Amino acid sequence: MTIRPATASDLDGAAATLAAAFDAYPWTRWSIPQDGYPDRLRQLQRLYLGYALDEGIVLVDDDLRAVIALLPPDAPEPAAGMQDEVAALHGERLSVLAAADIPAQPAGAWNLATVGVHPDSQGAGLGGATIEAGLAAVGDTAVGLETSDERNVRLYERAGFAVTAITRIERGPVVYSMLRHRS
């Protein structure tokens, strides 16, 4: 497995991989309207990956079957135009999404914004290898994340993360906030 920095030309394929990986994910199923869900999900992934490529780190494998995006603690807010696109894609779900009270990441921590492996390539260690490469890319620093799939908690714990909070969203998913302290 070769995990490498993504380029702009990788982003559409990487977004398609993330859309496939997150198709049944509790958070995206809750936060994105079901009308046009697959396209909305792919577009959101593409927007977020473009932002992460500009402001942080995006890594992919050579076949674009795995993707990880990490943002530094000092990443600026996305541009207003991107925020408007994200809001439009969330549509009527935007108000419940904005009301979700999830603990903030610790000051100074990188954010593991997303990681995903195409369903056809899951179970072969690609996810773990991608997380390991992402953590190596940010070095000896704290990294936080959120997941709404309990199965992911064990994967992240093997990478050195610990659960710091569990948020139960009314009529929504459970969100596990996790942190990996400096290694």
UniProtKB/TrEMBL annotation:
Alphabetically ordered keywords of this record: Transferase
InterPro entries for this protein: Acyl_CoA_acyltransferase, GNAT_dom, Trichothecene_AcTrans
Gene3D superfamilies cross-referenced by the UniProt entry: 3.40.630.30
Annotated ranges, domain N-acetyltransferase: 1-183
PROSITE patterns with a match to the protein in the record: GNAT
GO molecular function: acyltransferase activity, transferring groups other than amino-acyl groups
Annotated coiled-coil segments of the chain: none
Name by which UniProt lists this protein: GNAT family N-acetyltransferase
Organism: Mycolicibacterium diernhoferi
Upper classification of the organism: Bacteria, Bacillati, Actinomycetota, Actinomycetes, Mycobacteriales
